Amino acid sequence: MKKTILVLFASISIISCDYFKKEEEVKPEPVDAAKDVVLGGDKDDNGCLASAGYTWSKLNKECVRVFSGLQLSPTNNPSSDDATLCTYVLFDEKADNAELFLPNQDESIVLTRKSEGQPYVNGEWQLIPWKGFVLKKSGEIVYSGDGEIGNKVSGSLDSEEIPITE
Fold first, then answer.
1. 161 burial class (0-12, 13-18, 19+ CB within 10 angstroms)?
2. Structure pTM?
3. Nearest CA to 76 among 131, 137, 124, 126?
């Protein structure tokens, strides 16, 4: 009987030691603060991802990249290559409406034209198709551009401009 109790006591001791060892091993993982950060979580009220260059277009009713539209440079500093000073224009499918995205302004402005060849107008703003496009505010030209869509690339890689040395 003593042997049975001794074996039973030894078995219980081994099992209990194993139980406490497992309990010690189960530790909560430390929380990594970096896991809680959501990259690209800067969506606006319309779901546009600003960090990827998207903004809401009232005209097209979707998220767009304004810099893929018509770029107009400020007339008070026409030689500036700083795209943050430029305004961008997007048109609807029929080109009856134009949407202005002005620098340092959260809301875009939608301009409408009555017929082809006429200026796009909204209050004090006028977008006139002339040698590209001219944007006027209260009758004064504030932006102009060549009418090319997309970002401009300064300089040229034409073979005539690159000196060839032998």
1. exposed
2. 0.61
3. 137
